[in-house]
Design a protein that fits this description.
The chain has 187 residues and is mainly alpha-helical. The protein has 6 helices and no strands. It has helices at residues 2-14, 20-24, 27-30, 60-70, 74-132, 135-144. The longest helix has 59 residues, at 74-132.
Length: 187
């Protein structure tokens, strides 16, 4: 057992110690350390303390000027407070305007969607109404059931209506529908 201990001590002597530059450069990886004894830690050198600067006593006038420079005058403090309040008010007003713009934008989007839906419903209803009416059927019913005929040449009488929007009827309209015949000017 003693021989093993002596051999381990001899192995420690063969171990190489390396500095940080060698360690970080990868030199420690190339070196093989024999034995199982741990290396003794190196003592860290003490840091040298720098001597503190001795404060030079400043004159009374210098101390007074430093104190004045570090303090804020009441007028300047009021100005800074007013500027800060003004900046906060402007920021609040800006945020309110921005919120109003967003709200109106959402409202416009909702109204546009509603308009689109109503337009689509209106077009659908118009197409359904158009498809429901067969014009040939209406013409046949008018001619066959109600006795209507197409207007013949010269049977259409055009006149200029009165300025008022009401018409007074003094006599009944005759059954043939013709009140008076105008003379044929072409003869």
């Amino acid at each position: 057992m003693k021989e093993k201990g002596k051999k381990a001590m001899a192995d420690i002597g063969r171990m190489k110690t390396y500095n940080k530059a060698e360690y970080y450069a990868g030199q420690h990886r190339r070196m093989y350390v024999y034995g199982s004894a741990a290396l003794q830690p190196e003592a860290v050198p003490k840091q040298i303390q720098k001597p503190k600067k001795q404060s030079v006593k400043a004159s009374r006038q210098v101390r007074k000027n430093r104190k004045r420079a570090q303090s804020i005058s009441p007028v300047y403090a009021v100005f800074l407070t007013g500027a800060a309040i003004f900046a906060v008010c402007i920021s609040v007003m800006f945020l309110q305007l921005q919120a109003e713009v967003v709200s109106r934008s959402e409202n416009i989007t909702a109204l546009q969607e509603e308009l689109s839906n109503l337009t689509e419903e209106n077009d659908t209803a118009y197409r359904n109404a158009e498809d429901a009416v067969n014009l040939e059927e209406v013409r046949d019913k008018a001619i066959n059931e109600f006795g209507m005929v197409y207007a013949a040449q010269g049977s259409v009488v055009e006149y200029t209506g009165p300025e008022s929007d009401s018409v007074t009827q003094y006599s009944d309209i005759p059954k043939d529908g013709v009140l008076a015949k105008s003379k044929d000017v072409s003869e």
